[in-house]
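ok trying this again, last paste got cut off
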Amino acid sequence: MEAALAADDPRLVGALSGKARTRQASRVLVGLLAVLAGLAVIVAGLIAKNTVIGVVGFIIALSGAFTAISNFSLRQMMGKNTGTASRNRSPRWSDRLERRWDDRNNQ
């Protein structure tokens, strides 16, 4: 049964087996930690009343946000896949409506 599941859906098996994080997930985690560290440095700069420390904290937080966000492409954010899975999926709702419209007008 496990072999059939592994052959049918290897991504599910990988998610359930608790394998190590992917490179993308690790970079997002590092980016989020850098954002939190940058915010802590900003607060430390406010407490110390030192503008330079606050600016350094802002730069750290900004670079962490860039690191976390740069892992996602625009297609991933828009929900479009470029792999083979996108070719095998069913047509979108708008595609079906457009096809029906064309069928009506061509008759």
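PB: full thing came through this time. Residues 2-73 form one domain.
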